Queue: 2 jobs
Job 1
Amino acid sequence: MMKHTLSVLVMNQPGVLARVAGLFSRRGFNIESLAVGVTDEPKISRMTIQVEADDATLEQITKQLHKLIDVIKISDITTDERVDRELALIKISGDAANRSEILQVADIFRAKIVDVAEKSIVIEVTGDEAKIDALVQLTRPYGIIELVRTGKISMVRGSK
Amino acid sequence: MNSGGTARHPLVLTPGLRVDEGVLVLGGLPVEMRGAEILIECLKAEKVEVVFGYPGGAVLPIYDVLYDADIRHILVRHEQGAAHAADGYARATGRPGVCIATSGPGATNLVTGLATAYMDSVPVVAFTGQVATSMIGRDSFQEADITGITMPITKHNYLVKSTKDLARVIKEAFHIATTGRPGPVLIDLPKDVSNGTAEFTYPETVDLPGYKPTYDGHPKQIKELARAIEAAQRPVLYVGGGVVSSGASDALRKVAEMQEIPVATTLMGLSAFPTAHPLSLGMLGMHGTGYANLAVTECDLLIAVGARFDDRVTGKIETFAPKARVAHVDIDPAEIGKNVRFDIPIVGDAKRVLEALIPQLETKTRPEWLAQIATFKNEWPLGYAKGRDGIAPQYVIEQISELTKGEAIITTEVGQNQMWTAQYYRFKQPRSFITSGGLGTMGFGFPAAIGAQIGQPNRLVIDIAGDGSFQMNIQELATAVQYGIPVKIAILNNGYLGMVRQWQEMFHNKRYSATVLSGNPNFVAIAEAYGAKGFRVESEDQVRPVLEQALAEPGPVVMDFAVSREANVFPMVPPNESINMMVRGDR
């Protein structure tokens, strides 16, 4: 079993997310993460789907996705040179006593402080999965009040 | 009844209207039409001659236009009947079947029919009414999210939100339903979309960047298959519904005869190859012939064409065709490698691939292989015991087969009646066997027979039914009588849900839990109450004379055959067993 990243172009139409998600659930495939947004062409959206699957399952996933009328193109970019990014917002318990410590941690990760209140701090961080996992790990001891992650988006490097 | 098939309707309705570059114009100006009118014009443009439906609040605008439109409407008695009739029409003719239901319960009643068509890859276009767009999502009266519900059981579906999209959507729906691997498409029409107006242009082409079916097989792969066939000692063709739907029967026969390749078919592929042909092995799988199953087990090359390695075919998948290289021809790339390993994959239309294969093959005889097949046939002849406490059900089917010379269109329900028909009816031509193979829908056969009869008015159409299944859509007797649709129903009446009872006998110590139909009605009286003819047959010597009389009747007929109550379907491969491990049963 291996993690695969699929970059999927779909028609930007109501129901397309339900079609893709429904296909995964009824055929017993597992989505690890899914991010979707419109491309530079407003009629077309791009889904970045991360799945864990063996080769045969991945082939079925790809072929079944292709059968959806609204799916235009599927690229498996798992082995391509690429940039992976996720964004996370982490709300941490923090007051005057440990605020500067938290700020230091955030600084190391080049994360931004986007909100500071009397008893909480919200950190915004972008990066690949590992980086975000690491920051979450480090901030956990302070007490995470809420964590929101976008799911991964990916782009192949170079002019391809 | 309409003459069927040949009627073509011109597009223009009213004097003064004309079509100018695809746009309906009056006095030089494009005319706004109501959505419901656009729908009917689109159906005419698609050469739809008949729709099966049931009215209701949300489709009132459509029915108002249908009232004096030049399209035949068949009023069924339950929406499920409409979906199955459209399906049967499509399977009998090769043209898309069309059905209409209202919103909410009307739409949900189509669901089983759509799932049936989806599993067997049948082109059906279903229109459902929907509450007005402003009311969607508010749990309005007779609102159901039918596009959400049918997403996994349609090839595609649409919720039309604006009248101006309607013509494009209908064009796309017919295109999607009938091309590539065919399948049902549903269009959900909110009432305000049917009532709203828009300029009408029926597009000539579709723009679907995500939908490009592959028809021609890769030449290199076809060459590879030709080489594999030449090299094989013991090849078998394993053919399914794809051969029927692509019209590949002639090409299949040519390939089989040129190379003396025995042909085993799936349930869906039965009519693709004549049963009486010396190379025919009949059906393979759980209730297939012994010789088909042994041939597949012994073959060194299995050529699957338009078949999908269903579990009822393969039995235990690890030991299916264990000695064979596998070639798999299918128009749906997702079928290749879905269930079994493959050596030679070919994505393409069955007919085109086989036709491309023919010129690459030499003629060849295979006396040794055919001699081995002949021993399989001697070892495992089809056969059945005489009826113990009633007529042998297989005998009824043999008689129907003989009397109709294998030339009727046969539909079945699901269960023993279906398997016995598959075993004992001797098919001659494609599209003459209509049965719910994938979903296994009881209640399919009768409404499907109605649809088939309307599509093929000059053919004899017979539904071979069980007493259980027939009661699942028995209300369609009213439809058959109202329109004088002369389908013949042969009930193999054993007073049980026979196939389930057979499994209970074999695997559950004869504990006949909920399979005894002691409350069966008098089917003759039921038929007569509806205004059809009814016959009861209680002895074997009456089978033939009653069939002769019933099949000659000009209208719908119900024949109730009292068959041996605990007759079983054999041979049988027990579930999850290799297909050469058949149970022979009593003779």
Job 2
Amino acid sequence: MISAHWPLLSLIIWLPIIGGVLVLASGDQDSRVTKWLALFIALVTFLMSLGLWSGFQPGTAAMQFVERETWVPLFGMTYTLGVDGIALPLILLTTFMTPLVVVAGWEIIRFRPSQYLAAFLVMEGLMVGVFSALDAMLFYVFWEAMLIPMFVIIGIWGGANRVYASIKFFIYTFLGSVLMLLALIYLRLHSGSFDILGYHAVKLGLGEQTWIFLAFLAAFAVKVPMWPVHTWLPDAHVEAPTGGSVILAALMLKVGGYGFLRFSLPITPDASLSLDWLIIAMSLIAIVYIGFVALIQEDMKKLIAYSSIAHMGFVTLGFFTVFAIVRHTGSSNGAVLGMEGGMVQMISHGFISGALFLCVGVLYDRLHSRQIRDYGGIVNVMPVFAALMVFFAMANAGLPGTSGFIGEFMVILASFQANGWYAFLAATTLILGAAYSLWMVKRVIFGAVKSPGVAQLSDVNTREFFVLGVLAVMVLLLGLWPAPLVQMMDSSIQHLIQHISASKL
Amino acid sequence: MTLPLIPLPEILLLATACGVLILDLFLAADRQRWMVYLLAQGGLIAAIASVLVFSSGDPQGLFSGSYIRDPLSDLSKIFLFLTVALTLIYGKDYLRQRGQFTGEYLALTLFATLGMSVMASAHGFLTLYLGLELLALSLYTLAALDRDSPQAAEAAMKYFVLGSMASGFLLYGISLFYGITGSVDFGRIAEVLQQKPGDPVAVFALVFVVAGIAFKFGAVPFHVWVPDLYQGTPTSVALLVGSAPKIAALVIAMRVFAGALDPLSSHWQAMLTLIVVLSMGLGNLVAIAQTHIKRMLAYSAMSHAGFILLGLLTSSAEGQGAAIFYAVTYALTATAAFGLLMVLSRQGFEVENLEQLKGLNDRSPWYAAMMLLVMFSMSGVPPLVGFYAKLAVLQAALQANLMGLALIAVLFSVVGAYYYLRVIKLMYFDRDEDSKNPVPLLTVGSDVRLAIGFNALLLLVLGISPSGLLAYCQAAVSL
């Protein structure tokens, strides 16, 4: 049995990182060894994270599996890890998606597979580190270190315009992060250590809070990404290899959303309250405007990338309507709904967008084109694949019974309590999302067989079917029975709402 | 311990340098040069050992207090000697290939090291000037080591003319301070200046001292010699100019500004603020436009000098600790960078244009990975040590309420990230299409490979656990 004394979080962080180095060292002489080793490490990590889940007590908002070691005492930096109901679902999502990405690239990546797989494993460890760090500098180290493997993944295995995309990605995110770094240092000088929970308790004036809030916003808005700093995402996605797109969309964007919950809201509640209009406006613009932008895309990956931005708008909307809801109704029930909706939306988007990128990857591997106009009539030659892709597109549009519906519905329901207009604008996504998802499906999947190339396509093989099938099961499961996920995070969200309702002034 | 043994590191260095000169006379051929090389390395190692053996917490003075041995001098000497030892290892095969691995090179390097060592222990303007000139004269000569190259001669000439002018400035400032205070001792100068607040002559003299020291840092606007020197001289000499002297310059800057001229702190802080902003701005922006890799490193060195001086200008113990940590880690990083350039230079060819790094990952993945570490460390991305250096400086700056400067610093480091990334891009993302039959890499001994690996991985190890070195640096300044 998993003992409470095991440093389980450290294992989940360091096993993939050290494993990644081993995979790198194994070299490209025999890529079968490399691949099986990478898959083995990813699976063991996933199993260990299940241990985390089984040992997790959902009834409390306190941090669990806490580990604390000294690290740099001079700066008050400690190696402190722990998870609560907000971090755990995201960690599980990370460890769940990584083996799938390894399998998805199994036969596709022929150029330096050892470096490719190593980058993904290192990335996994770093992301779990981001979600479980309770020391601000440890968080920052993981946060920034994450850029290195992603930069390399896009730059080496990406498409034609990969260099531009990778450098744009790096500079954008780096710019946001350094401002956050200043905020973190400033907070440390006030609270005496880099302890994040200590940051939550520190008293700050409204002016200070506003600056800190904006610095955090610079970092998290770029990662989410929110309109108008979203422009790196379509470039990065289009040029990244399939696995890179999956990790970007399914996991890396979540880091930004997580940052709002762990830093912005609890550390600067008053600034969040006074600037919630800004975030809500940015979120609604993302939902409506980016929805229209997605509609006209010619490139499937770009379309999904824009749809990701629109869906992440729901996440930030759910997080920041809480103030308006409390103001409007006087109770925090609606606020909990909105925030949990945002969380569910993050997890669900992880599955759906990851699956859609994998679908595009399946097509791209066969025809080497991502353009919608090059396809048509796929259903005639690839019936199994067509069924799966239509299902994921429906989920992306928010079809009831899929996970996409739950998150969006919770957020819309909550935003009704804040302002009818918010709900109205947010609900347009049900139309827009259906429009761009289904229109793409119509053009790609249905109709007559477009070209001789399409006519010769072969249906998904076992490996591809397995990856997409697992994701389809997860989307359906979460859509029909979201209770375990909601229960897991409920106490932590309740606690967070309670914390941010109290002014720090 | 008896007093005369305090400057043992300097005695050892001087003896070794003289020994190298004499022994080299009796060596018949280049084949036997390894003997002097080993003697030089032995001298450096013995000097490090002598620092370690005699180090203690209490400062000890000598020659009426003009020479001092304290934790700061110990720390800086250890890293000075270490980087010079690495420089000699990297330069050995590179220079031998070019027929420049002479006894004079070794002796002059040792004299330059002796000069830096004296600077690190200077506690009076006279000692400081002696050390500085010994360093400068050795470096002028080393810059012209490649006698037949017009480029090297030009670089050496520029360096010599501008360097002598800077020395002149410094000497003029020193003479004015001597005129005001009647002493060249740092402690005495501080005492006298304390009693004459706002003396205009002192501020006038300060301008010259700041200019002289900023020149040694290669900080903007006293930077014009740096790119030409880096480009024109053999890489091994550029390395010697670009790494260790930063540490020595920082130590004298700390002793002069935070020690002797502390009463004038509001004045030198204003001047340094300007230098910091200009160095970071110009260094980072101009580096983007460079196609020559050594020129790019020269401009990047200016931006790092800006960061080091930012730590100094906080005039707090934290800031000084941060500055010395930054200088030490930067010296190690720059040593690795130039060392890699030397290893990658082919027989008879220099690595000059950035383009020549294209596709390095295909040719030698190990060196590409080491260069990757160096570049990410320079751009300040965790988990490499460059990040903690920047973190320490920024923390001290925020503590001193220098929010504006901290903001400028981080924004320019984002600009800086661009050109470091470009190097990585060339190595990893681009393929080398031009060279169908590439010239073989320089054949280097396993000692060089080992040293490069140690040097670059040290950046990563210190990045994961920077605690020890940080505490050491902080302890060295907080007395």
